[in-house]
Hints:
By secondary structure, this protein is an alpha/beta fold. It has eight helices and 14 strands. It has a single domain (about 1-250), classed as Ribonuclease Z/Hydroxyacylglutathione hydrolase-like (Metallo-beta-lactamase, Chain A).
Amino acid sequence: xxxxxxxTGTSVGVPAITCRCExxxxxxxxxxxxxxxxxxxxxxxxxxxxxxIDLRQQALREGIDRLDAVLLTHGxxxxxxxxxxxxxxxxxxQAPVPVYGSATTLRDVRRTYWYVFEDPGGASSRPxxxxxxxxxSFLAGGxxxxxxxxxxxxxxxxxxxxxxxxxxTDASALPDATFESLRDLDVxxxxxxxxxxxxxxxxxxxxxxxxxxxxxxxxxxxxxxxHDLEHAALSAELPRGVSPxxxxxxxxxxxx
Length: 256
């Protein structure tokens, strides 16, 4: 399985509008971060983890020509506003794209994309989504997926595990049951927003604490990184086996 980081930034991206900090004005391309999303590729199967606001740009950059399913972590704008761009995949594949998420997330999608699920009239094109609530485990594009309970502040959201790989973003806490579900992991992706405390996201220190408890055998990658963290400096200070991801990075993991 190949995992491509389509975006590794926060809800405002990096550089942030109006900001002139050292990271936002950096010439290092590794400090440029689109909104968080990832693509899983197994053979010809393509699964999208969150549909960020920047999906069009990400898909063009990576040459994504098909999507077999979308796995949503939650319904906030930076994770679902790219769903409108499914229209071109619908056109090429001549089918709706299955979109998986919790009941709450899918309710949010219906509310955000009212023009898809209601009939306002007119002939404008609309994305075709087959909304599918997740169960204890399920198949997406024929691949086995286990949802993981995650807390985003006080809001329950989802992470996902496929085989020995797990993807968690926007977490501020993980229940004990989720830590148990992350045993025997090879590769972990987890969010690390900044150093200063935040009510709804892991700080760098909190992310490192979670990584130490999960103890992935091969590697942990940090994502959802703000402009408070400079890529090269962050890379230099992290413990062995932990690295900041960057936009366009592709890693390989054993197939689920």
